[in-house]
Amino acid sequence: MSGKADAAISIRSVSKYYVSGNGKKTKALDSVDLTVNRGEFVSIIGPSGCGKTTMLKMVGGILGWDHGEVEVLGKAVEGPGPERATVFQSFALLPWMTVIDNVSFGLKVRGVAKPERYNIARGLLKSVGLGDFEHAYPRQLSGGMQQRVGLARALAVSPQVLLMDEPFSAIDAQTRLILQTDLLDIWSKTDLSVLFITHAMDEAVFLSDKVVIMGARPGHVTEVIDVDLPRPRNEATRRDSRFVELTGRVWDRLRGMITDPNADVAA
Amino acid sequence: MVAARPARPRAPRWRLESMADRRLGRLAIRIAALVLFIGIWQAAGDDSINLLFPTFTRTVSVWWDLVESGVLPITLLITNQTLFVGFLIVLVLGIPIGIFTARIKLMDKIVSPYLTFLVAIPMIAIIPVIQALLGLTFAARVTVVVLFAIPYVVINTAVAVRRVDPVLTEMAFSFGASRLMTLRDVVLPAAVPGMMAGIRIALGQALIGMVVAELTIVGAGIGSLIADLQGRFRVAPVLAVACSIVIEGIILMSLVEWIERRLGRWSKQ
């Protein structure tokens, strides 16, 4: 589809096995191929156990794999790297640190001096709408606000690739819609490439250029749906008939896997 | 935002439970309980012969005599040297051993049986062994304090370190933090509330150990003072000395609890 040079993330025929306690080998991923082009927003959706979070962790350099290749910006992944940052499902904020210290955590790890990292953190807090909360503690914030902190922390290290692991799944439905729009706003001002894991079909379609549908047992890519909705996307997009149609298509593919778990096992 | 307090049904003012909800009310209840306790003590005491259980007022006056004569301050000082040195060793050794036990499997295998042993057996049973090894020395008393207290610091530290949310360490790793950095900036701060709980329990044990060491390994301090007074059937001074230890214990425990609350504020709610 695209040349190697354009790929932000390139996963080529990757397989992974899990060894369970009794020494039994289970195939978790079966020869998966996936490309995220530079500046592209790609979502992965699939039933539980399809290995979508595993894939994200492999790209993040947190988990290894058994066969195939994983490359980020043309370089083989050998561990975490400064060009990637992750937003976590459970926020993963440090509860004893104030919001601004949480946002500057990644910069501290990289040895950026305090005044400078606070400067960067303040700018990002403003851009995620939390300018007045730099001295608050995470527990004083709602879930939605905590994830804004998580997003600001990831953006603070100025990554080129953003990995988001079901970032909005622990957040109530209304706040979620607002976060989706705000995320697109922030993303549109950058040249970030995003890999986004989700369970929500409307979320995947609303945000993405491409929706990758995965099946389970073992995890594999079933279909890649191109989302040709125009950008910038906004509330009107959610009422667009094309949006409804694409969401329906994603559901059709997923529903088949859920009603008949064996229907989708890879040959 | 900040969680609101759960609504409480209005209760009439004179109810004990509603009093306990107010700061001033709590203080009043505490003072009332203390006055009641002292009153019963006073009534139960009998000052006609020295051998009998003394009244509160006699105990206080005997205590003051011991303070004025300088006997009590000096023995307390000697005793607290044992406690201070012993507890310092407990912290300096216990916390790192706890961390290593949690993070290194081999260390866990080596340390755990001894901890179980130390917690399970009545410590007083091995005091003769310590005495045989180290004699009637300061080192022997310090060793007793350490053996009494250290398991609680090691075990609680290890548990606290093991219970740190793996997502937090994964987060640190994903930002490129080294093992040492993750330990310093993520694991240790997250484990502080659990460690402090262990330190609080250990302090109680160290106080017991301190007195037990001095009562059994005759040497110096409060323990030998008590033994000496007891030998001469002087009940009131024994009680006065014992009360001093109780008061010291309460003060030290409150101090540790205060530190615990300050360091662990983020983990509440």
Please give a structural write-up.
The complex is a heterodimer of chains A (267) and B (269). Chain A is an alpha/beta fold. Chain A has 2 domains: 4-83 and 160-259, 3-Layer(aba) Sandwich (Rossmann fold), CATH 3.40.50; 91-158. Chain A has 9 helices and 10 strands. Chain A has helices spanning 52-60, 99-103, 105-109, 114-127, 143-156, 173-188, 201-207, 235-239, 241-259; strands at residues 7-19, 25-37, 41-45, 67-72, 75-76, 84-87, 161-165, 193-198, 210-215, 220-226. In chain A, the strands form 2 sheets. A 6-stranded mixed β-sheet of chain A has the order 6-7-8-3-9-10, with helices on both faces. The longest helix of chain A is centred in the last third of the chain and has 19 residues, at 241-259. Chain B has 269 residues and is mainly α. Chain B is 78% helix and 0% strand. Chain B has 11 helices and no strands. In chain B, helix 4 (71-103) packs parallel to helix 7 (138-162) and helix 10 runs antiparallel to helix 11. The mean pLDDT of chain B is 87. Chain A binds chain B through residues 60-62, 80-82, 84-86, 88, 90, 92, 94-96, 105-106, 108-110, 137, 139-142, 157, and chain B through 1-2, 165, 167-168, 170-177, 181, 185-186, 189-190, 192, 266-267, 269.
Summarize this structure briefly:
Chain A is built from nine helices and ten strands.
Which key terms come to mind for this protein?
heterodimer; A: 267 residues; alpha/beta; Rossmann fold; 2 domains; six-stranded mixed β-sheet; four-stranded antiparallel β-sheet; 9 helices; 10 strands; globular; B: 269 residues; mainly alpha; MetI-like fold; 11 helices; 78% helix; flat; ATP binding (chain A); transport (chain A)
